[in-house]
Backbone:
């Protein structure tokens, strides 16, 4: 065979060798390597390959998308407590409170006895314009009966919220009427407010309650400050208790309003995120006003950034209890189907250099989830000496000692009050009976209560109605055994809780806050700070006497009641 003949057959021989090699490789892969799809796998390939194997060979038919939806939260939970997956159905509602508005009908509702009860109607919103009033019971939606076990908060939101300018027809039963009244509502933009209360605590002291840090928090704060300026405020209390956080930029903007130029507010840094400083520009209009910030164990994230900036720059006094301890930065990353992950990419650090993130371990950390309960059982809510400082010492701009590794510790500690706490009160509160009674009482007396349009007038009226006795009778009829000695001991707590709920049902968030603040020990301590001209911190030598006194005489506060209503 000549050389030309050899060259002619060579490509065919090589092709046959490749085909035989593939066949042999496939045979050994399928029979001797446990169906491994590749000899060298990356972790991501393993996950993809596992899904393909399950779809191809699993004994039953499965929904791969459903498996992915369930697996995503578990994967992220292995990283840290705040990296989370949010499904497409939940992504929109997860951002509504922070975006400044959402599209809906404009009501606040609760679900009682498997029925939607309209608790409040948002002023000048679509529902109010259509004729819906507080107290209405929604029993049909778009002609379909909507009562019973299928009525959940999630399902109610799905039916009542919707795109702007779309219509929904609800059937309501009104108190004193038997016939269903059909009302068609055109959905519209419903504002959500970060600042829920602004008023004067006394003739010199303004008060601002900040619920969260959203898109509109800073402009809302400027409006609140302008209102207080018209009333001649000379001192300011910013209440961040129960504020779980929100947008970093809003907290930075707020802090900038109170701090001098070129002061560090916060910085963030991570493995892939170089250090980024956020500093003041000196344009704030309230750099010199005496300031007190209120925090508690429910204050987290952006709340802690603001409080930490004020504390580390010695700009104001922090009062309350140690904050939650969330110092991780999440970046939202969206998927094409509308779902998203919030992935931790960095840590926050206060101006003194402390990270306020409390300790955690990777994976499902039970101790982290139960941290607040453990603090309670350890006695931290009742004694400053019980606070565990997990991190090293840092120092503020004038040398005061602060701690990292677990939230913001207040300059003045105020203990939670357990006076009057009994098992009867706990059961009444936890069972929802107080909420149910307050709603029923409000509904049955709505026409009378309308005559009292301020907090003072309404609370004065309720004080004459023997309301605790009415509640005890209601609770007994609904399964809570009457305990007269415990009722007497818990009378102030029962009265306060019931009265506050009726005020909220008839008025609004601001009226509720104003009522609760009347005998709030944390607020009273803030007023004492202003009265003694000690809102601006002093160095530790100058301030030892005051701080020691505050530590020894921890002042009890009322339990903080959390009221939840849903908006749509």
Residues:
């Amino acid at each position: 065979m000549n050389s030309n003949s050899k060259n002619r057959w060579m490509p065919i021989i090589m092709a046959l060798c490749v085909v035989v090699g593939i066949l042999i490789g496939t045979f050994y892969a399928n029979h001797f390597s446990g169906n491994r799809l590749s000899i060298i796998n990356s972790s991501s390939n393993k996950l993809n390959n596992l899904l393909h194997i399950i779809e191809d060979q699993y004994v039953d038919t499965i929904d791969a998308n459903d498996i992915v939806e369930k697996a995503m939260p578990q994967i992220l939970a292995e990283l840290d407590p705040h990296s989370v997956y949010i499904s497409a159905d939940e992504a929109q509602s997860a951002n509504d409170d922070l975006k400044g508005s959402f599209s809906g009908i404009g009501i606040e509702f609760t679900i009682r006895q498997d029925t939607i009860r309209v608790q409040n109607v948002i002023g000048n919103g679509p529902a109010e314009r259509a004729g819906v009033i507080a107290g209405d019971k929604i029993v049909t939606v778009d002609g379909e009966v909507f009562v019973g076990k299928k009525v959940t908060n999630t399902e109610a939101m799905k039916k009542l919220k919707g795109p702007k300018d779309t219509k929904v027809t609800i059937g309501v039963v009104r108190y004193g009427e038997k016939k269903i009244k059909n009302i068609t509502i055109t959905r519209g933009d419903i504002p959500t407010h970060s600042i829920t209360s602004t008023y004067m605590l006394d003739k010199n002291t303004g008060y601002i309650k900040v619920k969260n840090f959203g898109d509109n928090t800073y402009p809302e704060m400027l409006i609140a400050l302008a209102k207080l300026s018209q009333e001649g405020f000379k001192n300011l209390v910013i209440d961040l208790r129960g504020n779980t956080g929100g947008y970093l930029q809003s907290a930075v903007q707020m802090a900038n309003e109170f701090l001098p130029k070129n002061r560090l507010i916060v910085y963030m840094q991570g493995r892939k995120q170089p250090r980024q400083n956020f500093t003041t520009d000196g344009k704030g209009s309230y750099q010199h006003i005496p300031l007190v910030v209120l925090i508690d164990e429910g204050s987290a994230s952006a709340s802690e950034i603001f409080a930490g900036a004020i504390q580390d720059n010695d700009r104001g006094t922090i009062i309350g209890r140690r904050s939650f301890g969330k110092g991780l930065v999440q970046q939202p990353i969206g998927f094409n189907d509308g779902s998203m992950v919030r992935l931790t990419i960095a840590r926050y650090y206060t101006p003194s250099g402390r990270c306020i993130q409390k300790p955690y371990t990777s994976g499902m950390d039970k101790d982290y989830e139960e941290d607040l309960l453990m603090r309670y059982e350890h006695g931290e809510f009742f004694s400053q000496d019980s606070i565990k400082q997990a991190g090293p010492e840092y120092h503020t701009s004038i040398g005061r000692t602060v701690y990292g590794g677990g939230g913001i510790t207040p300059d003045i500690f105020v203990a939670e009050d357990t006076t009057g706490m009994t098992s009867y009160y706990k059961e009444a509160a936890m069972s929802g009976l107080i909420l149910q009674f307050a709603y029923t009482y409000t509904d049955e007396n709505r026409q009378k209560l309308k005559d009292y349009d301020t907090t003072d007038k309404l609370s004065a009226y309720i004080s004459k109605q023997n309301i605790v006795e009415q509640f005890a009778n209601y609770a007994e009829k609904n399964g809570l055994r009457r305990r007269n000695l415990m009722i007497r001991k818990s009378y102030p707590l029962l009265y306060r809780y019931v009265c506050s709920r009726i005020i909220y049902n008839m008025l609004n968030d601001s009226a509720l806050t104003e009522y609760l603040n009347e005998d709030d020990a944390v607020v009273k301590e803030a007023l004492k700070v202003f009265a003694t001209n000690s809102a601006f911190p002093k160095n530790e030598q100058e301030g030892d006497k005051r701080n020691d006194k505050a530590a020894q005489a921890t002042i009890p506060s009322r339990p903080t009641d959390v009221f939840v209503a849903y908006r749509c």
Notes: The CA atoms of residues 187 and 320 lie 41 Å apart. The chain has a mean pLDDT of 84. The first strand starts at residue 84 and ends at 86.
